[in-house]
Design a protein that fits this description.
Layout lengths: L1 H26 L2 E3 L5 E5 L1 H26 L3 H10 L10 H6 L2 H20 L4 H21 E5 L4
Parallel strand pairs: 2-3
Antiparallel strand pairs: 1-2
Helix pairs in contact: 2-3, 2-6, 3-5, 5-6
Length: about 150
């Protein structure tokens, strides 16, 4: 009887924990900001990490434009790959739990968009600029929908 009670309790706790983690993975940790966007609540180091990744996107955009203007498609490919899907693996799991699903999907799509910019380099500068234009629309959509805030400063 005792073992049965213990097993049932363990299963209930496991299911509850899995449900909570699943809920957090989908919803993230957000509040509605005063400007109407969703404010993603992070610790200072997590916010710095995400902002650093975004600055990396911006640096890559400038490098890609410069390389495309010089018709240096090898440099376009290298830069685009640097911020493509390969970069996603560096996000700490505890930070991923705090990001809402739509933000994660938009971020992944942006990384994939940079991979597409790299593939467009096979065609030429015009294709690179078209792919970059499409990808920048994702950056704009993200910045229109979200902002990052530090825990306690919502």
């Amino acid at each position: 009887m005792n073992a049965k009670y213990l097993a049932i309790t363990a299963i209930v706790l496991w299911v509850g924990t899995a449900a909570f983690v699943g809920f957090k993975f989908i919803s993230g940790t957000t509040v509605t900001a005063t400007d109407g966007r969703q404010a993603i609540v992070l610790e200072p180091a997590e916010r710095d990490f995400i902002l650093g990744e975004m600055r990396g996107f911006l640096v890559a955009v400038q490098e890609i434009i410069s390389a495309a203007n010089q018709n240096n498609m090898d440099s376009v490919k290298e830069t685009a790959h640097r911020v493509g899907r390969a970069e996603v693996e560096g996000v700490p799991p505890e930070t991923m739990l705090k990001l809402p699903m739509a933000f994660k999907q938009l971020g992944m799509s942006t990384h994939e968009g940079f991979d597409e910019v790299g593939l467009a380099a096979e065609i030429g500068p015009e294709a690179v600029m078209e792919a970059l234009d499409t990808n920048l629309g994702k950056c704009i959509a993200c910045h229109e929908s979200y902002r990052l805030t530090v825990s306690g400063q919502e």
